[in-house]
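Input/output pair, single chain:
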Amino acid sequence: MRNVLIIWRRELAAYFTTPLAYVFIVIFLAMAGALGFYVGHFFDRGQADLEAFFLFHPWLYMILIPAIGMRLWAEERRSGTIELLMTLPITPFEAVLGKFLAAWSFATIALALTFPMWLTVDYLGQPDNGVIFAGYVGSWLMAGAFLSLSACLSAITKNQVIAFIVGAAACFLFLMSGLDLVLDAFRGWAPDYIVDMVGSLSFLTHFSGITKGVIGLPTAVFFLSLILLCLFVNTQVIELKKAS
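Output:
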């Protein structure tokens, strides 16, 4: 665990040594506020809640989270520092976990900085704070799932642009998998259990339940299981690169 903490501290500090981290946070806050309050017609609805704010989180994350995850391993492979990292007295899983937790911590900081929006809604009305808290927890879990997927895909290429495009495409597929447009393509030839399995992978389906104030065990298990699976696959990819 000590090695994981060392890598986590090193990687998290590295985010704030360049202006890109601050640019990312500003873009996230600006887009989240604009989409939630203006595109979501918060003031026209006359209802004090953050439903419209959370509604756009999956789509924001689809673009912004792969931008965080693309550098985790692609940059290490491009610069050749991955060989140096693997010579240190740490296991590949410790390296993968430390890097992932650092990136997730960075995403958590960006999400936490939207807290004034919650205060604004509390000032303007009497929202259900339990529902808002559930929305934040769900958004945090979904960000972790997106990030683990993006980090895993980042390990297969040396090019950050390719890592971003592939990561964003994978995130898009997980978002769209529960829509009727996608499921109808399977209903014509696939058994019902295949259709149900594809639909159960949808981030939108799981997240929409949480934004209504219900953090169900199946949803929490889904996001956490996906994170663990991607971390496992990421570790195996790094093991293969280390062996070669």
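The chain has one domain: 2-243. Residues 7 and 98 are 5 Å apart (CA to CA).
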